[in-house]
């Protein structure tokens, strides 16, 4: 790759202007002072999305099985089927979880699990049909490209036919989990059996072509180089160009990134992970590089509430979602949090100077929460919530 021909200040000016950056220019951003990169990223965030608003989604993660035969070295969530604490949820157990989500006004489930060789196509289609029949207002974003690849290989269907079958049963979207770093050299070291980048994009591309919701993801901290991170971002940008051009504008709805968590995993002590500084730097560079992805999420499960709040000034315009039950990142460390309450996300946004809004998974605003009620603020005590310090 040729070196960036611009000086640091020329590069920052170009970044802040919103002009598309080349690979050497993106890579050169890693060598610049973070406050200046952050200023360019925040400026772009303010111009590309409503400057006053920070959004979040009320949803629930449901991990329908923890049995998995992929065995990623960075995963503390999966079990073999012989392990005592392996599980596969039946439809009624999943319904019970959805009822809890409905009780707090949630609108979406993120339904993902391990690659469980004991499950047949009927389990997946039956599950989707069950959820649609019993919870008609709940949107189902389900199955990472890894799970879809397993189904494609196992059930004798082409990718198109498989997706059509799942859509017919009720699938609304395909979360873009498993992106990590979409460079196979990095993936092969971290998880030899993991879905390769070409398959990840092939499945995402088909989903976007069929009108399904998708997001792009990134995880840093495997020991990947800046060139590999840059290549990851450029592949996402290229896919987004294709989707926006060819699939009626149905590209990635957003971009989410977090740092590798290695507790209880085989990568513990072997992968460097990433500090808060690196996370914020990478987030800011993603905002600059991904000029065609409007929504950039801050990640509280891996980074904690405080860093996620800071991320709102490093390019993020969204706080992700409440999740109600996050199991995968938290199993490998994270901040020990499995969920966020609506009140906690409201407080993070308000204290950072933004107006919180509740969105759907397509990032359309569906409600403006009553901030004063949520934070127990009254005329006598407008700072009430600050005094008790709810969020940590
Ligand atoms: S990350 Fe997913 S595919 Fe990899 S071992 Fe864990 S559950 Fe299986």
Considering the chains and any ligands shown, give keywords for the structure.
single chain; 392 residues; alpha/beta; TIM Barrel; 3-stranded parallel sheet; globular; binds iron/sulfur cluster
What's this entry about, in short?
This protein has 392 residues and is an alpha/beta fold. The chain is 43% helix and 11% strand.
Terminus-to-terminus distance: 43 Å
State the share of residues found in helices, binned by percent.
40-55%
So, the CATH homologous superfamily? Aldolase class I
The amount of beta strand, in percent, is: 5-15%
| Bound molecule kinds, no repeats | iron/sulfur cluster
Spatial shape: globular
CATH-defined topology: TIM Barrel
Give the mean pLDDT: 92
Q: Care to count the β-strands?
A: 10
**Largest beta sheet: strand ordering:** 8-1-9-10
Task: Characterise the protein shown here.
The chain is an alpha/beta fold. The protein has a single domain (49-380), classed as Aldolase class I (TIM Barrel). Helix content is 43%, strand content 11%. It is built from 16 helices and ten strands. It has a four-stranded mixed beta sheet with strand order 8-1-9-10. A three-stranded parallel beta sheet has the order 2-3-4, with helices on one face. A three-stranded parallel beta sheet has the order 5-6-7. It starts with 7 loop residues before the first helix and ends with a helix. Mean pLDDT is 92; it is low at 386-392. Iron/sulfur cluster is lined by residues 68, 70-72, 75, 77-78, 114-115, 146.
């Amino acid at each position: 790759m040729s070196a960036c021909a611009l000086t640091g200040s020329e590069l920052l000016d170009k970044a802040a202007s919103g002009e598309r950056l080349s690979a050497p220019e993106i890579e050169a951003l890693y060598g610049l002072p973070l406050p200046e990169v952050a200023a360019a990223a925040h400026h772009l965030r303010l111009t590309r999305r409503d400057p006053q608003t920070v959004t979040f989604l009320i949803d629930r993660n449901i991990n329908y099985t923890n049995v998995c035969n992929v065995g990623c070295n960075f995963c503390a969530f999966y079990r073999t089927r012989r392990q005592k604490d392996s599980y596969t949820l039946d439809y009624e157990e999943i319904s019970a979880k959805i009822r809890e989500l409905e009780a707090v006004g949630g609108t979406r489930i993120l339904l993902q699990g391990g690659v469980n060789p004991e499950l047949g196509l009927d389990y997946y289609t039956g599950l989707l049909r069950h959820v649609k029949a019993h919870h008609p207002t709940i949107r189902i974003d389900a199955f990472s490209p890894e799970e879809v690849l397993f189904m494609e290989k196992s059930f004798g269907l082409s990718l198109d036919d498989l997706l059509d079958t799942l859509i017919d049963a009720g699938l609304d979207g395909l979360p873009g989990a498993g992106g990590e770093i979409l460079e196979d050299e990095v993936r092969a070291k971290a998880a030899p059996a993991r879905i390769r980048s070409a398959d990840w994009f092939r499945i995402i591309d088909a989903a976007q072509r069929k009108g399904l919701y998708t997001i792009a993801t990134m995880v840093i901290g495997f020991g990947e180089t800046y060139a590999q991170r840059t290549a990851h971002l450029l592949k996402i940008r290229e896919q987004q160009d294709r989707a926006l051009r060819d699939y009626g504008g149905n590209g990635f709805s957003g971009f989410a990134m977090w740092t590798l968590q290695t507790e209880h995993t085989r990568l513990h002590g072997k992968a460097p992970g990433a500090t808060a500084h690196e996370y914020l730097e990478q987030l800011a560079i993603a905002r600059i590089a991904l000029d065609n992805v409007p929504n950039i999420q801050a990640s509280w499960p891996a980074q904690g509430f405080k860093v996620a709040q800071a991320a709102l000034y490093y390019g993020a315009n969204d706080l992700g979602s409440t999740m109600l039950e996050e199991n995968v990142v938290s199993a490998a460390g994270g901040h020990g949090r499995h969920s966020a309450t609506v009140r906690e996300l409201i407080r993070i946004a308000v204290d950072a100077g933004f107006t919180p809004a509740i969105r759907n998974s397509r990032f359309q605003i569906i409600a403006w929460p009553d901030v004063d009620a949520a934070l127990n603020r009254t005329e006598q005590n407008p700072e009430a919530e600050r005094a008790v310090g709810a969020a940590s």
